[in-house]
Design a protein that fits this description.
This protein is mostly helical. Helices cover 54% and strands 0% of the residues. The protein contains 3 helices and no strands. The chain is elongated. 8% of the residues are buried. Zinc ion binds at residues 41, 43-44, 46, 59-60, 62-63.
């Protein structure tokens, strides 16, 4: 293996590692919140759609969006 090939292989490996980290980061882990009653948004008390509840969300779409915008 000459130096170029080695560097390319290393870069590829790094890219794959970054992708794996990125994936793990994006995987939706169920959220928890001390005030969460299992049905209502922890931020505004609006009922959370079942589809979101099944994803382990503790906030309605609106509050989630707000939260993510603040973080960004
Ligand atoms: Zn809300």
């Amino acid at each position: 293996m000459d130096e170029n090939q080695f560097e390319m292989a290393e870069r590829l490996e790094q890219a794959q590692r970054d992708m794996a980290i990125h994936k793990a980061h994006n995987s939706a882990a169920p959220e928890t919140h001390p005030d969460f009653d299992g049905e209502h948004c922890v931020s505004c008390d609006e009922p959370i759609p079942l589809a979101r509840l099944s994803l382990g969300k503790v906030r309605c779409v609106e509050c989630q969006t707000h939260k993510e915008k603040r973080r960004a």
